[in-house]
């Protein structure tokens, strides 16, 4: 199944099967990650988590690590029109549920052709009951050919071919087990790489926000310094003007006194 999640103060979630049939949708204020894990687990095992923003929020990355699945993110944050078109006439209690559903449906659309191809291939091989298992593997970075090989290996281990010698049977089981472990390990490594890339993207976004905050603070400090310098300049100009006026008044008084003295002498 594909699970869309809209983290935040109110967490929205939407669970769909691998054919976009809605299984459950809901939301809760201040929902913990443990509560969300429990809600998702009740519906089954997720094959893909999805969100409507890029990079994926920390909550999604931790959920992906818990369920050991990938996170599907859009190339850029999804807009309101895109979300509305994706959910169509579906009804929701709030925008958090709608955003979660839109994220899940977008993720399905990304892999829709591959999922339909898997349905055709497993039908041709006579193993339609393995469709969801193959889809789960492919959605988590296993190639279709490796996924089919893994299914074949599991079938051989479960129903080993009867050999005339016990040693031949044990050898086959051992080789099949080794091959299965290698295929699983390969898929796990791919998922681990993607989780690290998601974490790296989130860290880059955090760094960008921190840098933006630093730049804004520096800009404010620069503006404050500029304003303080202007205030000092105006104060200095005012002081100079006052000093000039004081000097002028003193000179004027001295001139008046001198003039008065001259007149007294003539009298």
Using brief descriptors, characterize the structure shown.
267 residues, alpha/beta, Nucleotidyltransferase, domain 5, five-stranded mixed sheet, 7 helices, 5 strands, 69% helix, 10% strand, elongated
Q: Would you give an account of this structure?
A:
The protein is an alpha/beta fold. It has a domain at about 1-130: Nucleotidyltransferase, domain 5. The chain is built from seven helices and five strands; from the N terminus they run βββαβαβααααα. It has helices at about 35-45, 60-65, 80-85, 95-125, 130-140, 145-160, 165-265; strands at about 1-5, 10-15, 20-30, 50, 70. It has a five-stranded mixed β-sheet with strand order 3-2-1-4-5, with helices on both faces. Strand 4, helix 2 (about 60-65) and strand 5 form a beta-alpha-beta unit. The longest helix is centred in the C-terminal third of the chain and has 101 residues, at about 165-265. The N and C termini lie far apart (about 120 Å).
Taking all Cα atoms into account, the compactness measure Rg is 37 Å
**Number of helical segments with 4 or more residues:** 7
Distance between the termini: 119 Å
Q: Could you spell the SSE succession in H and E letters?
A: EEEHEHEHHHHH
Strand content: 5-15%
Query: In oligomeric terms, what are we looking at?
Result: single chain
What is the CATH architecture descriptor of one domain?
Answer: 2-Layer Sandwich
């Amino acid at each position: 199944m594909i699970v869309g999640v809209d983290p935040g103060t109110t967490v929205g979630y939407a669970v769909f099967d691998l054919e976009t049939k809605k299984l459950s949708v809901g939301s809760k204020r201040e929902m913990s990650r443990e509560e969300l894990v429990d809600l998702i687990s009740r519906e089954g095992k997720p094959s893909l988590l999805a969100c409507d923003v890029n990079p994926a929020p920390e909550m999604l990355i931790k959920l992906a690590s818990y369920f050991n699945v990938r996170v599907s993110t859009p190339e850029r944050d999804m807009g309101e029109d895109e979300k509305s078109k994706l959910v169509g006439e579906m009804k929701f209690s709030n925008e958090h549920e709608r955003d979660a559903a839109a994220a899940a449906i977008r993720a399905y659309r990304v892999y829709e052709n591959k999922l339909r191809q898997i349905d055709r291939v497993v039908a041709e091989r006579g193993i339609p009951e393995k469709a969801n298992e193959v889809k789960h593997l492919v959605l988590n970075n296993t190639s279709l050919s490796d996924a089919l090989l893994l299914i074949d290996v599991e079938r051989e281990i479960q129903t080993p071919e009867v050999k005339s010698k016990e040693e031949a049977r044990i050898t086959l089981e051992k080789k099949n087990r080794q091959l299965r472990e290698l295929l699983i390990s390969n898929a796990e490594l791919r998922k681990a790489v993607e989780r690290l890339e998601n974490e790296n993207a989130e860290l880059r976004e955090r760094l960008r926000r921190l840098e933006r905050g630093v730049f804004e603070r520096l800009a404010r400090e620069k503006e404050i310094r500029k304003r303080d310098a202007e205030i000092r300049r105006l104060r200095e100009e005012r002081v100079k003007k006052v000093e000039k006026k004081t000097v002028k008044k003193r000179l004027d008084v001295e001139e008046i006194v001198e003039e008065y003295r001259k007149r007294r002498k003539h009298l």
